[in-house]
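[09:14] KT: can someone run the structure on this one? pasting the chain below
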Amino acid sequence: MTLRLVQNFTYVNKYGKREKLVLVDLEGKFVDGLGEFSNRYVKNYKDDPKYVDVNVDISVKLKKENRAFKVEKYEHSYPHCWRTDKPVLYYPLSAWFIKTTAIKDRMVELNKTINWKPASTGEGRFGNWLENMVDWNLSRSRFWGTPLPVWQTEDGNEEICIGSIEELNNGIRKANEVLGGDVNKHYLHEGILDLHKPYVDDIVLVSPSGKPMKRVPDLIDVWFDSGAMPYAQWHFPFENKETFKQSFPADFIAEGVDQTRGWFYTLHAIAALVFDSVAYKTVVSNGLVLDKNGNKMSKRLGNVVNPFETIEKFGADATRWYLITNASPWDNLKFDLDGIKEVQRKFFGTLYNTYQFFALYANVDGFAFKEKYIPLAERPEIDRWILSSLNSLVKKATASMDDYEPTQAGRAIEDFVDEHLSNWYVRLCRRRFWKGEYSTDKISAYQTLYECLETVVRLVAPISPFFSDAVFGNLNAVTNRFPGAESVHHTDFPVANEAAIDESLEERMQLAQDASSLILSLRKKVNIKVRQPLQKVLIPALDPLMKEQLQKVEDLIKAEVNVKEVEYLDPDNMFIRKKIKPNFVALGKKLGPKMKAVSTALSQFTQEEIARLEKEGQYSLSIDNEPVILQISEVEISSEDIPGWTVANKGSLTVALDVTVTPQLEAEGNAREFVNRIQKIRKESGFELTDRIEVKVTAANGMKESLGQFKDYICAEILADKLEIVAEIQDGIEIEVNDVSLKAIVSKKG
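[09:31] RB: done, structure tokens below
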């Protein structure tokens, strides 16, 4: 590391002495020798009410002497002190520099080995800074700070740089011996104990030629301290050498992107200069927290959100989860309290409700994970699927965390809890928990759901430590699967079981979810309730594998969307007609002037070409004798409705739903709606889940036939030993089934 003194704006006076070529002293006054302007403040630094603007007097003088072509006021931006709000003068001073330019190329090379998050900061902002860097101005002219450890003789011909306290104390004693008298007399016994000004300035050292040496008055740039942190924290190289080697370079650092020229640079520069190494392997450059409108928070604007009030109201976990999952750490975050409410409701509420559902039925059946562990191969497909998805989640979340992508990890966990665990697995498996004996199937359901809950709370523990600890404590208190673990934070982060991952199973279950979602959206579109059975849904299969996958989950789809049958069509069928158009947002920047030609080409696509694009995910066009590759995400494919049918598609998946309700289907729909109403009465009456009941109901016309036709189904669903359809009821509960008013009496048997 090379230190050099640079002196600016100097000249040699008539006596041969080098002096600074400046007109204003350090107090902000004109120096002597400037006539009537000497010793006058250039700005009103003293808040003198009688202060006369010196600029006015200079202008008048120039005008009187006919040396000013034109004088006028000109407003422009000017630097001001952030504390005093006084105008700042840029003043040339002698300064000490580190010759960082000597290793610029090496610093650029080393930077390319650092994992920057985002990469654009390292390649652009920081990379450009290194490419254009100058020597590091190390010194500062202040009182408080780390003194520059450089001593010079009065003539400046000899100087030394002190490298340790021991070296300084040895120099103190040597100077006393050589120079004698009272030199350093206060520091002879124990050495110097305080290295700051003014004490360090009392130290006199002796040069090799025997001359006294005084410390230069400068301090070290405070950012040098920050860059020296990896070494200073261990008092390296004087102590803890092995500990230092284990901790250097750092795995990662995290700070605001504004530290490009500060901490990021000084850490990098010192490590490169001293060790020819990086100081950190990864950088997470944090973005800013803005208000919900994208404005910087400030007290002046009144848009500051009090973090303590926010945490008090919403909890630390919900606040932290929102901050992590709403935007990547390096992106600016538009902070909105409504977003935290949504996190509370959708994520934590869903996860806690899932836990409560499990606990409710587990307590009823006395499940404590004491039964023999059911092998994966012996569990139902729905159990194997959710465990496969769980382990895929663990794999993905771990990879994201390892890659410093906590936002991706959090969002993956959210999707699993909402889309897979709660709205699919638990909903489809409800009957397994509350119906039937304590069989192997029910135990499998309990073990599977328990594993999911236990693993998920361990996954979320780094982001939501309190919620996860509470749920884990409740689970482990019953099962003791982690003996001695008083907290979730005493357990290891989950490790994915590769043997449990079945990609084919996850693929077809995703097809089932997507198909069900499309069909349910079509029901909503034509205002047909889910409890109303429909006859048929058509699904074009793009290839034999897709058909095979759909057939394996066909029963699940039919049960989920309440249709009687699924029929598969060839991709080139003429029943479902599709349309295609460009996604102008996605293609605009990519194609530029070719956009019009591509749009025209797409309008001429045949059904076979659309099917090919859906199957392969991309399509090559020739525009002006040049190939243009279109991705399926860059186009919009829609289907035309058919009389008596309604059609929807998502990506390569298309469904057509028969929306004709026959009398037979209507009767079954009435029965299902009736079951729903009786279940609500059971709940409102406070009946236990296993209570048997008897029902009397008045029904007329078609409703009577519907209830009679599906009597066995109704009784099985509502746990009724008797369903009696009567002509009249005096004191019953009025209910409505598909716009038909009924009156019912529901009584607990026994």
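[09:33] KT: thanks! Residues 337-365 form the longest helix (29 residues).
[09:34] RB: yep, looked fine to me
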